Amino acid sequence: MIKIAPSILSADFGRLGDEVRRLEKESADWVHVDVMDGVFVPNITIGPGVISAIRPYTTLPFDVHLMIVEPGRYIEQFAEAGADYITVHVEATDDIRDTIAKVHSLGKKAGLSLNPETPFEDLLPYLDDIDLLLIMTVHPGFGGQSFMSECVSKIAQAREYFDSTGSDAEIEVDGGINRRTAKVCVEAGATVLAAGSSLFKAASMEGEIEEWRKFTFPGDG
Ligand code: DX5
Ligand code: ZN
Question: I need a surface site. Which of 94, 147, 195, 210 has the fewest CB within 10 A?
């Protein structure tokens, strides 16, 4: 069963607690939280303080996507703030192995992400150690961008790799996901759909999520 992770980057930041609370009612599975430092990407969003402030508003897992340089410096703070999945970018540090180990040592699930221009092969040394692979389908930094279809082949490569090793790691896609592109990603093997603008702008988020749940990976029958 695929999981839907609305990105609160597209929520109303003035009422973030209520927006997060609403996601459970809209039948979302996870809350996708975009953390940007103005260095790894040209935008600044929220940090551990805001995450701990909104944590009491839901019991849904927090899927924290760190778009920050040298993320190893902040893993403890994000774990304490209430992250369940902590995802770092393969481009953000030379210390990926230690960073993943730090996430695991704190009892959290470790994710690894890659930018559109980064080849899938850069992930190979780490794929056996992660719980989630987050494939960017736009250049990270902003919501509302168009899906880059050239990234779909990486979803298929990841699916093939995890199937061959028997791993149950999640394959998440992020950026420009809407009803049309969600279908393409799930058919290529994605298991988690992160989406901001298309879900928060939908007339009914719940109705939109219901449509996305109908997509199945061919192997699921
Ligand atoms: C972009 C973020 C995304 C963003 C997606 O850097 O990682 O999670 O919120 O927004 P949409 O779905 O609008 O492309
Ligand atoms: Zn994201």
Answer: 94
